[in-house]
Specification:
Number of helices: 7
CATH class of the largest domain: Mainly Beta
Number of strands: 23
Radius of gyration: 44 Å
CATH architecture of the largest domain: Beta Complex
Strand order of the largest sheet: 6-4-1-3-7
Distance between the termini: 151 Å
Strand content: 35-45%
Shape: elongated
């Protein structure tokens, strides 16, 4: 036992004798290794983009550009060290809220290499941008009403309108920079889809339209959309002329015209909303009698038809034409009695 204790004491004396000089020698060896490993002729440069600069802000302060900004670093070091670098190899946190500078005034932060934590053996030679202009502001919260947005109300079937919209909840809490939030009057939903088959009311969960730097709670609302037919009334338009639709062959061989005593005009009754109905002009409607099926001379009762020829009348419809039918006379052109007579 005494022999073992003696060896232990001897070993301790060897290890700890001149400990200061040994530590200094070790440090000089590390420095010498570094100077040899990273000597100037082996240095390379590289540009690292997208390096994060984190702003450390109080809970009630926000930066208009966000709390994380990106910069570009120009770095140098050994090639094998640079090849392993990424934006995450660097870290930077700054606390820009110092002093008595009012928050509503722009604040400039100078960036230096000392702001960045970097890997061993890497030197930061340049920072772009070297200055950050910050727009700091107090965080405030307001309750704002919601405006529903539809992708196109014109897609509803003719004669139908959105008669009402109930929104639940009716308001949302909007949180963000005071200068932005105080200027808002409402928030909008993302467009709610409507198509030509929508004739009945429906419920829809709508997302709110996002805004940069703004948080909304909740971020979606429920819409109850009511669909109804437009209020409609009738209007009579008199003395509307009509035309006779003939085929090219009929025009070559027949004389087709209203029979004696047949009126040359007609009266039309239209149904629709007040605005287009009251604005309607005679030239919005085209009346005609289709003669394409007539193949021989004689007198015929042919129905009158009508169409609207202007987009302003898309919500109107023709409900009556008077007279419903007109008497038409069909006779051959002079010297023409039909195809058989021509061959004789």
């Amino acid at each position: 036992m005494n022999r073992f204790s003696g060896w232990t004491a001897s070993l301790k004396r060897v290890i700890f004798r001149d400990a200061g000089r040994k530590a200094m020698a070790l440090l000089l060896a590390v420095i010498l290794y570094g100077s040899v490993t990273y000597k100037s002729k082996d240095l390379y440069s590289r540009v690292i983009t997208g390096v994060n600069v984190d702003l450390v802000l109080p809970p009630d302060v926000v930066n208009a550009q966000g709390s994380v900004l990106n910069v570009q670093l120009k770095v140098s070091g050994a090639e094998r060290v640079l090849s392993r670098l990424s934006p995450e190899s660097f870290a930077c946190k700054i606390e820009p809220v110092t002093g008595n500078t009012p928050l509503d005034q722009p604040r400039v932060v100078e960036l230096t290499p000392d702001h960045f934590r970097k890997p061993f053996g890497v030197t930061i030679e340049g920072i772009t941008p070297a200055q950050l202009s910050l727009q700091l502001d107090r965080v405030v919260t307001r309750n704002l009403p919601i405006r529903q947005v539809f992708d196109s109300e014109d897609r509803l079937p003719a004669g139908y309108v959105i008669s009402g919209v109930a929104v639940r909840p009716g308001e949302v809490a909007v949180t963000g920079p005071a200068r932005v939030v105080q200027g808002l009057q409402q928030v909008r939903t993302r467009p709610v889809p409507i198509d030509g088959t929508t004739r009945e009311g429906f419920d829809y969960v709508a997302e709110l339209q996002p805004m940069d730097g703004i948080r909304m709670t909740p971020d979606r609302v429920t819409l109850r959309v009511s669909i109804a037919q437009k209020a409609a009334g009738e209007r009579s338009i008199s003395s509307l002329p009509y035309s006779l639709l003939l085929t090219p062959e009929q025009r070559k061989n027949w004389i087709v015209e209203p029979a004696a005593g047949t009126p040359a005009t007609a009266e039309v009754v239209v149904l629709g909303p007040d605005t287009p109905r009251n604005a309607m002009q005679k030239n919005w409607i085209r009346l005609f009698a289709d003669m394409g099926d007539l193949q021989k001379p004689g007198e015929y009762m042919v129905p009158l038809s009508g169409v609207f020829i202007t987009p302003e009348a898309k919500d109107l419809q023709i409900v009556r034409i008077s007279p419903e039918k007109i008497r038409v006379s069909v006779r051959p052109l002079t010297g023409v009695s039909g195809v058989k007579n021509k061959k004789r």
